[in-house]
Sequence to fold (77 residues):
Amino acid sequence: MAVRRRPRGSMVDPVSIGYVIERSAKERLDRIAEHSNVSSAVMFEQMVANTPLTDRGVPVWWPEPELKDGELPIDTA
Fold:
C-alpha cells in the first residue's frame, strides 16, 4: 500500500527540520506513519498538533520539574 502524502504545493510555509535523533526513534516514527498510511512528515505534524498540553504548555506525559524549597530549579552557572 502506497503511503499517502499531502498534495504537492499545499503547504503554506514549509520548513525543513534538521534534528539529529536516534536511529531507533526515526525508524519507529517511520513504522507508525507507514501503519497509518501517511508520510513520516505528516505523522510528525499530527503528533505535534494533537499532543495534549498542561497549563504550563508542556505535554501531559512530560515529568513535572522537581521543586527545591518550593521553587523551580534554576541553573545559575
Notes: Residues 23-36 form the longest helix (14 residues). The mean pLDDT is 89. The helical segments are 23-36, 40-49.
